[in-house]
Design goal:
Elements (H helix, E strand, L loop, with lengths): L12 E7 L3 E8 L4 E4 L3 E2 L10 H14 L7 E5 L2 E3 L4 E5 L4 E4 L1 H9 L3 E5 H12 L8 E6 L3 E7 L2 E3 L31 H4 L1 H14 L4 H5 L7 H9 L3 H25 L3 E5 L9 H11 L4 H6 L1 E4 L5 H14 L12
Parallel strand pairs: 1-5, 5-9, 10-13, 13-14
Antiparallel strand pairs: 1-2, 2-3, 2-4, 6-7, 7-8, 10-11, 11-12
Helix pairs in contact: 1-2, 3-11, 5-7, 5-8, 7-8, 8-9
The chain binds zinc ion.
Zinc ion binds next to loops.
């Protein structure tokens, strides 16, 4: 095991912790990916200077481990931000306002248990590969469409991290730097700014403002247009709202089809709030992606599916513990080539 600490005997339970931008969740997960004990979520504690209070977060994890009915093999931690998965070092997390925080080491020192910390998209991809829709799949992309757009890659039976560990930032390819708005990454007109929840809301607002009638336009009477209002208006048959969603899906499809054309993927697993905002979102996206695929083989074989978990990064954090202590391996019992 590379990461922090090791045990010689295994209980086949892992403590999984998911640290998002505002909330922390924790659960004990078994070797089958099942949650066997769930804990109440907590707000991420922010200090007065604006950054998440790492010491308080370590204390929260310590209290959770103490309250657990299970002896665990280790602690898997999913973090929203860049994380060095070998050391648990967090060079940067925009949401937590962390700059160079050795969080994995802090948790390890406080609890004296093996710790695996990694970025949330990597953990989510792991969950799908081990226990979800991508089980046995050798080449897939995990894509999340929510407040942002991005994901992680699984190539030739392995997670693909890239040279610096930043692979999977396909939402920050540029779509239109002339008409686009500033992106959180510091560039202008990234794909994410067009296809994410905020992107859909922005396009919806623009459309609603210029429309003279229609359900979307009426929504402006109740305040600013949000993503939900656009989906609701489309559901009620407003063609202008539908065209906002169609355009976001077209750009998403071009982006994801580009990945398939480059990497010859077998599957794309799609998660996130936008992808779940209407029941047919993933099916429509799947149809649209095919329009931009190059080969007949890809059009025939590509599988586009909705994510298997509503908390994939939490579940995946446990998976990382089992993978690194050798009690679990990916592609086991594979039925796919
Ligand atoms: Zn960007």
């Amino acid at each position: 095991m590379s990461a922090l600490g090791s045990n010689s005997t295994h209980t086949n339970y892992a403590m999984a912790v998911d640290i998002g931008g505002t909330k922390m969740a924790a659960a004990v997960v078994d070797l089958e990916g099942k949650v066997v004990q769930k804990f109440a979520t907590a707000a991420v504690p922010f200090s007065s200077s604006g950054e998440a209070n790492a010491l308080e977060m370590v204390e929260w994890i310590r209290s959770i481990v103490k309250d657990s009915h299970f002896t665990v093999d280790g602690i898997g931690i999913s973090i929203c931000g860049n994380v060095d998965e070998e050391t648990g070092f967090v060079p940067l997390s925009a949401n937590l306002h962390w700059n160079r925080v050795p969080f994995g080491l802090m948790v390890h020192d406080a609890l004296n248990l093996p710790v695996m910390a990694a970025t949330d998209v990597r953990m989510a991809a792991l969950a799908e590969a081990a226990w979800g829709a991508a089980r046995g799949i050798k080449y897939f992309a995990w894509a999340t469409i929510g407040t942002g757009f991005g994901g992680y890659l699984f190539l030739d039976g392995k997670l693909y991290r890239g040279f610096h560990g930043y692979a999977g930032n396909f939402g920050h390819n540029t779509w239109d730097e002339y008409q686009g708005v500033m992106c959180g990454c510091g560039k202008k007109g990234c794909i994410e700014t067009f296809v994410s929840g905020p992107g859909i809301a922005r396009a919806g607002q623009k459309t609603a403002d210029s429309a003279k009638s229609g359900f979307l336009h009426q929504q402006t009477l109740y305040g600013k247009i949000d993503t939900r209002a656009v989906f609701l208006a489309a559901e009620r048959g407003d063609p202008k709202a539908q065209s906002v969603l169609d355009e976001a899906q077209r750009i998403t499809a071009i982006s994801l089809a580009g990945l398939v054309n480059i990497l010859d993927l077998q599957m794309i697993v799609v998660g996130g709030g936008v992808a779940g905002a209407s029941p047919d979102y993933v099916q429509r996206l799947s149809d649209k992606i095919r329009e931009y695929l190059m080969t007949e083989e890809a059009k025939r074989d590509l599988i586009v599916v909705r994510e298997s978990f509503n908390n994939a990064s939490l579940i995946g954090a446990a998976c990382d513990v089992f993978l690194r202590n050798g009690t679990l391996s990916l592609l086991e019992g594979s039925t796919h080539e």
